[in-house]
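Recap for those who missed Tuesday's class. We walked through two folding examples back to back. For each one, the amino acid string is listed first and its predicted structure tokens come directly after. Nothing is annotated here on purpose, so try labeling regions yourself before you check the end of the notes.
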Amino acid sequence: MIKLQKEKIEHILNTDATISNSLIEAKYKLPIVEQKILHMLIAQIDFNDKRLKVYSFHVSDFLKIFGDKNYAKQVKKALDTLLNTKVRVTKENSFLETHWLASAEYFVGGKIELEFSEKLKPFLIQLKKEFTKYNIIEINKFKSKFSVRIYLLLKQYRVVGKRTLKIEELKEMLQVSELYPEYRNFKQRVLKVAYKEINALSDLIFEYKEIKVGRKVDSILFLISSKFIQKEEKEPDIDDLIDQLQESIKEPLRIKEYKAILAAAQNDINLITTKYNIAKKQGNIDNLVGWLIKAVETDYSEPTSKRAQSKNKFNDFPQRQYSEEELEELERRLLLKDFEI
């Protein structure tokens, strides 16, 4: 029994967990212990499974994995929180609200069996695109609940190397809009704490720049790099990126056109997918390639209401047809080793 428990712990620590990007960007608020339990469970999931299973651990496992006696003492209270806390996930045509856990069963001796909410199945298993891999070793030393969330938001964009998030959008994900309404407090209590912990304790290093609209900080540009970049990871595999893009954009486009869109978006598959979903909703787009290139370059976002959409002039501008020479130039940009920021 001890040997099996040891093997299980080693498996959790040595196997990358996989999670949907939609779940990374979901709106929820959980303390640090609850988040660590959650990720310990996710690390047990085989994302090739066809159904969610009952996942178990011993209280002693938690101590061995995270190395903190205080955390082990808080497990029961943390599981109560997970059973009662809602998570809100944005889907293509709806948003989902559900609880993290469907049940928790406690056994004499310290064993605990847990079931995820069945509604979370599409975000935890059978993931074919738009997912992120990570290892719980990288978050096990964090003390701040915000460090875990921001780490995953940055890990999602590690290959791209940068990510821009609006302050209000980030606050909504972390559910702290009311707690830190003023940016200076949000910066001090959230950004600076995460900056210190992630850079010191994880496999990522990041810097951030404030983007102002007028005199107000509107967005944060995160510049992301890895402490342990392997040579083959420095340059993204273009064929692999095209394959991913073809999964997201099921249109009869040429390879040069896919490369041109990737170049405009600096390889950001998630950004392209977001703009493509907007394009599908709007319809009546004669030149999809030109529309997508313009949309990613200008960071076009969907109007928030029908009235706003009627006033939006984005589609009024002719979406230019690109010549072979222009497509080749965009492709050349894609092949550059270092993109300008």
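Example two. Treat it independently of the first, because the proteins are unrelated.
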Amino acid sequence: MAEVLKYDSVSIEYDGKKVLEGFDLSIEEGEFISLIGPNGSGKSTLINAFLGLVPLASGAIYLMGSDNSMINAKSRAQVAAVVPQTFSTPFSFSVHDIVMMGRNPFMKRFASHTEDDLRIVDDALEQTGTLELRERKITTLSGGERQRVVIAAALAQSPRILILDEPTNHLDLNHSLQIMQLAKWLNVSKGITVLAVLHDINAAARFSDRICVLHGGKIAAAGKVSDVVSEDILGDVYDIDLIVRNNRITDSLEIVPLRNRQREKKLANKRVHVVCGGGSGEMFLEELRSNGYIISCGVLNESDSDAVCCNSLGIEFIEERPYSPISEGKKEDNLALMKSCEAIVLTDVPFGTGNMANLSSIWQICEESDLPVYIVAAEGRDFVGGAADDIIDKLINLKGAMSCSRQELLALIKSGRI
């Protein structure tokens, strides 16, 4: 595929201070590329540099193989259209007039709009769902409507490249999704190359072919979504604890921010085995992992919410078929994991015939050793005629066992006293 835009070792300075250093990015025709990173990392500066609004300290930008600095604004606009963060006009133009301005790069001086211009503008309005707004004044539109009109004006330029500078800034969820879906549709259906500056990491992961992460004016990571959207990379760049998981509905990676990194990570480096199920373990699994424990998990049925959590967090667990009772083989695998651990956590998971083997395995291990057991107290968890309550009562009476509330267990984990 042909290269349409290239940043070649671009460095930019403001008042003698470098805000971008040695930035390299090559974009091929038909790609959807997102730039992400914290505020002040240089994302929008790259777009301003492309527009010639910011001088380069070193390096070069190439548009369709030509030095961008040698291309005048009109010629540049015939190839690339830029949708800015904010759009304002001192006059109350109609939507049709605003979109028609997108034809200006192709207009000869004092010439009138042609039938072809009118057709292109109507197509742009149609593609962005703004045709019915054509007679409305731009000042009367909502934020989402206005942004779609600005994109329509960009499309009226018949661009090969569409550059979006934080296109969902100040928009609600509905309008943000609408804009991102529109950008992806233009990319896929019309073959328009898209370069988008985004704050929304999940949107970048869902709609992009590649992502470039900026941090401190330099590239922290760049590549396919699966290579860039990782806990290590994004956690360090944004200075937060997070998890990355696959959204099976959108079939895309997404992040779940957990907390700011305001404290040093505790490195407990202790092996803990968790017996849970039905979502009862999610909070404890994340907290244990965040505090540096080495975790394994008891038998969980495929697609159980705790199994999904383990997959998201990269926690080893024993998996059983959906809706199936724990087999003898899986029970033995679970026992082996328990024996390798230094403590066991039993959440407030209910017990029935399908998962009783998890509970009986804890009792078997504790009969053979003094392994500490932390039991989350719960009522009404026994669905096997009292057998589960009997085992839990016996566990609580063991030396080294502790019955506690969910809050008490979380406090123990945070303090590193498990």
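Answers for example two:
The chain has a mean pLDDT of 92.
The chain has 15 helices and 18 strands.
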